[in-house]
Specification:
The chain is an all-alpha fold. The chain is built from 7 helices and no strands. Helix 4 runs antiparallel to helix 5 (about 125-145) and helix 5 packs antiparallel against helix 6. The longest helix is centred in the middle third of the chain and has 30 residues, at about 60-85. The relative contact order is 0.15.
């Protein structure tokens, strides 16, 4: 005769392992892909405005894209993904560790940006922002790979390669890490889509 207490303990341990084991699939890959497309588009628009010497418009490009396009699309896509998860009878979890991680990265990046602007060191050294944000993205991608899913390690590798290549090649390639800030998110989104199709999360 099976011991009911033993079965209860086994179920408890199985539940703990299931909840603590890192997932191999990022079901929110549509959100990642969308942010990558928006950031890449914004960077290209800023570059074209810079070439056309319409510098006054550049500071407004990213805020407009983020608040008018990216954030509403994030809400919509997250709701769609969560609805799909709920249809399988699973309660979507809020990853507070990831929220804290990217909140901290954004705060540090904004502080560095503000310090460079206030000190006046940004004049003639626009590339400093590219290297600051590129380095912060690299750290965030590594943590995403540990906490979320493996495709973020590929994004981190591409981000690091672009930073090193720009540093070695010199000022004429300082734009490279900037374009890959969005490009790495596109890469992570596409790899996440592939992983979600190859390894569907069981109900």
């Amino acid at each position: 005769m099976e011991d009911p207490d033993l079965l209860k303990d086994v179920r408890f341990l199985r539940d703990v392992v299931a909840r603590t084991q890192p997932t191999c699939v990022n079901e929110y890959w549509p959100v990642t892909l969308m942010w990558g497309c928006v950031l890449t588009f914004g960077y290209v628009v800023c570059a074209l405005l810079g070439i056309a010497h319409k510098v006054a418009i550049i500071p407004w490009v990213m805020p407009a894209l983020i608040y008018l396009i990216a954030l509403p699309l994030t809400w919509y896509l997250r709701r769609r993904v969560q609805s799909g998860i709920e249809e399988r009878g699973v309660l979507p979890r809020c990853r507070k560790d990831l929220v804290f991680l990217w909140g901290s990265i954004t705060a540090i990046g904004l502080l560095w940006t503000g310090a460079l602007i206030v000190s006046g060191k940004i004049q003639g050294r626009w590339y400093a922002l590219v290297f600051v944000w590129g380095s912060l993205y690299f750290i965030g991608y590594i943590m995403n790979g540990v906490l979320l899913s493996s495709e973020w390690f590929w994004a981190a590798g591409v981000m690091l390669a672009s930073l090193v290549a720009a540093l070695v090649a010199g000022p004429q390639f300082y734009w490279l890490p900037g374009i890959w800030m969005g490009g790495t998110m596109v890469l992570a989104g596409l790899l996440g889509r592939r992983n979600a199709r190859l390894q569907p999360v069981p109900a």
